[in-house]
Predict the structure.
Amino acid sequence: DPGGIKSFGWAVLQIDAAGAVVDLKTGVTSTAPDAIQGAAQSAASAPKGIGIDAPLYWVEQGDRRADAHIRKRVVAAGGQSGTVSAVNSLRGACLAQGILVARLAAGLWPNALVTEAHPKALRRLDADARRFIDEQGMLANEHARDAALAAFAAWAATTSHPGWRNLLVDESSPFFPGGAEVSYWFPR
């Protein structure tokens, strides 16, 4: 959950074969390298998936289809359209630090699936995500919560969770500024 100085949440989520949470560790730091280091030190093994709450791909023209799709669903569920911002309107920490995390993670864990995540929209639209976060109890702050939800999205992506799909397949000519193709798994 890249957010800048003392606002960069990270989480390590361990789930067993039955889908039950075994362990969740979270922290908040200020930079991409510190977040990767915190996650690496807290993980029992290399991750299967990495969820990042930041745009990890861009499109050449207009709004990303994934953003338009999720924005429409958030508004239909009673939320604000600004919950899902256009890439061109985002702050630098989210854009730059998200790409840096993706690059650092790919270098450290080259076999991990990397997916973009949108924790605030996920929490509004998915009952399983809300239940997951409610079961975790009190997390340090919203950055730790959003990082935990990004980890939840990575778990759903690595298991091809029923009811989820990769929104990236709907995009036309995506550009990957991190240098490697990523995904964007989100509930249907």
User: Anything to note?
Assistant: The longest helix spans residues 92-108. The helical segments are 32-42, 65-76, 92-108, 119-125, 127-135, 142-158. The radius of gyration is 15 Å. The mean pLDDT is 92.
